[in-house]
């Protein structure tokens, strides 16, 4: 069973040092170890740290990108009542 995160949990992890969590389609991803590998650069990921990045993600990526990294980076899901 995956871990459930509140919006505040995600918001608190808004830097690489704190874990750099982002939300994509109500799933929570830990991006701290991925920032240097991100083809679009670290700056973009750091800008959306602690936030819902769904809109930005889908603007530049397709489902195959999510599937490729999901197993490695997904750490849980956003609680039902929690919205950013």
Description:
The chain is an alpha+beta fold and 84 residues long. Helices cover 37% and strands 19% of the residues. It has helices spanning 7-12, 42-48, 54-60, 63-73, and strands at 3-5, 21-24, 27-30, 74-78. The chain has a four-stranded mixed beta sheet. The two termini are 23 Å apart. The relative contact order is 0.29.
Describe the protein's topology.
Elements: E1 3-5, H1 7-12, E2 21-24, E3 27-30, H2 42-48, H3 54-60, H4 63-73, E4 74-78
Parallel strand pairs: 1-4
Antiparallel strand pairs: 2-3, 3-4
Shape: globular
Strand content: 15-25%
Give me the side-by-side strand order of the main sheet.
1-4-3-2
Q: Give a short account of the largest sheet.
A: 4 strands, mixed
Keywords:
single chain, 84 residues, alpha+beta, four-stranded mixed sheet, 4 strands, globular
């Amino acid at each position: 069973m995956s871990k459930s995160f509140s919006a505040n949990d995600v918001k608190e992890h808004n830097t690489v040092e704190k874990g750099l969590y982002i939300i994509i389609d109500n799933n929570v991803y830990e991006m701290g170890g991925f920032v240097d590998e991100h083809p679009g650069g670290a700056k973009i990921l750091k800008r959306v740290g602690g936030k819902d990045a769904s809109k930005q993600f889908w603007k530049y990526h397709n489902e195959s990108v999510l599937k490729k990294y999901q197993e490695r980076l997904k750490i849980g899901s956003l609680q039902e009542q929690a919205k950013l």
